[in-house]
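I trust your eye. Have a critical look at both lines of this record:
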Amino acid sequence: MTLSAKSQAVGKVVCVGRNYAAHARELGNEVPSSPLLFMKPASSIVWINSESDNKIVRPEVARYGDTHYEAELCIQLSADLSAATIQQAKQAIGGVTLGLDLTLRDLQSQLKDKGQPWERAKCFDGACVLADWLEVQAFDDFTQVAYQLYINDELKQDGDSALMLFPIYELLAEISHAFSLQAGDVIMTGTPSGVGILQAGDKLKLVLGTHKWQARVQ
């Protein structure tokens, strides 16, 4: 069953970097021993739904460079979490969907090389694409949730929560020990390998079980 896309106001979006070893390796990064966390503001969110044509607008390529896609399994909390146990984290999940963490990769690399924060590459308007929320009951214990991203009908990313370095319940609990989470907050749980550049006119399809969302890149 699909929930309203905005059933609960989003306070912040917490993103998890390198939660799949293969993705860390494809970008030449070390595999982390603890979750790598960063945030996107609620202002970066754009919503897509399964019932209409959706558009994804990239920042101007001539000015900002290429925009990369990163498909991710996303969780929304229905309760506050602070220094939570795994059981408390499990009970706090209120919705599930897929999303795209959009990244200005060249800009991100430039900022990293200078030792500067890279919010400019991750927090622009439209940088967080979220699909309709789904009820959690269909996902059992989240240990083996498969999802896919197709671009122009070609499989680009094939995710499976069983391959996460930091499983979902443990991940939520760990984040809540780093800083408090509030009801409505979204956690993007990391992207599998296969990230790449979005081109104008690309047709995207996100698949989570029997649920599908489509969008075209502007």
User: Anything to note?
Assistant: The CA atoms of residues 8 and 122 lie 23 Å apart. The longest strand covers residues 93-101. The chain has one domain: 12-217. The two ends are 30 Å apart (CA to CA).
